[in-house]
Input
Amino acid sequence: MIKQQIKNFRLGLGIFFLTFSGYYLPTYLQLQPVFAQATASQNPEADRLFQEAEQLVSNEAQFIQALAKYKQALRLYRQVGDNQKAIATRQRLETVLATFLPLAEKFEQEIDKDEAAFLAQFPKTEDNQTAQQLKELTAAQLGITLIDRSEDSFPISEDQKKAFENIRVPLRDYLISQEQSSSNFFRPVPVNFREYLDQNAEKLKAIRTLLLENESPRWGTDMSWISKGDPSYQLPSYIGFADLQNLFAIDILYKQEQGKTTEVQEALEAAWKLGQSLKNDPSLIGQVVNAITIRTQMGVMRKLDGLPTAWQQRLLEHDYRQSLLQSLAGELLYGKSVYQRSINSPETATEEENKYFADAYSNLGWSEWSEPMRQNFLRWEGIVVYQMNKQVNTVLAQENVCSFSFDSLRSIMEPTYGDLVGIHSWVHGRWTRAGRMMIDLELTQKILQMKEIGSSPQSISNIPSTICPNANWVYQSTDGTRSIALAPLPEWAAGVDRLPLIYTIDLNRN
Output
């Protein structure tokens, strides 16, 4: 599990700069320059990197950049088989790591403050009554474990569980196919889904009623695991949450087919209320699952007729990019704890952890290092990764997801962080997905506006996007249709797994 957790901790980057103070280290921390031996060079690039590291290393504000250059030089010397310089560089790096432990302590104190602030923001809480009742009802009536935590224990209907499992995968596939459609057509609800919904109509109604007539569910959270770096900690499963939302979605489409307008709106309201209960969830898994379910809800809304105007505003009331970055702050702290535990309690390291570090740093000669050097290296690696990704979170909050370019950011970042820029790239991916979802929400808003206008001769002027600066929502009308598209389209819009950013409404179907 630790391998997957650390893999998930490889975060993407944005444009940012170190904010460390620029004064020079005290005399007792200054190092005398030591250069690789001047033999006939087999790798002038490595020589240059080593020399630059020597010039930077005694400046606190540039220490992390120096560390990256030492690592790059060592890697290059090893690649060309220059053993003499590789050994000299490794020895130099070992000295640098040990000498600058006071600086490491300073950085770690700042990280500890961040951790304390995060945990104060998200103290341990319990499920409220609505959440508790909802989990019990869903398990007993539908055989679905809504949010699976190790401490939960609810009676579950095995017959209902089996019945849902029979439609689970085809239901997901059907909904995805409808999401990806660029028009308001949707395939009739298949017979097996209709049969399931008819058989469970009263049970689904009871769940909807519970949601609609009570306060919003509040799910218990406990983020203390981020402080421990414990690979045995079992994250809660939110699969059942997505399953229930899929059932709500197909039920809404079925009711749309039957012309049950009031029930459509009630079912949509219940699904939305359930989804909003995760909008500020501090865990990354909660944010990821919520994004999946919101996308499903958008796909359904685009097929519906006669939704109240209030939905147009509600779609953009919350910025899911900020929620995503907030959850990533917890992931950063957990990643720091993984490194820290391996240093402070090496005897607790699992075989998988040891293999991960050995594989990750094999090109630096990990197997040849002394144990103190390994521990000092991991200490600094945890600090650098945390500082790097903390800054990227701040910058991504200011970025335009439609024009964001990882390649341009990478060219800026690598001089300071070296290979870590490419290794820790997944936060960039998660953040762009959250940004793209905001664009999808904005388009859904525009689609509902077009549906409201309907066949009226009223024309619609092009509207600037509030999510993508310098892009517009462009409208076109022909006999019997209205279309909308984002222009210019971002490069990523061609991806087949996205909701379309071009949409056409056949007015004759309204």
Summary: Residues 426-453 form the longest helix (28 residues).
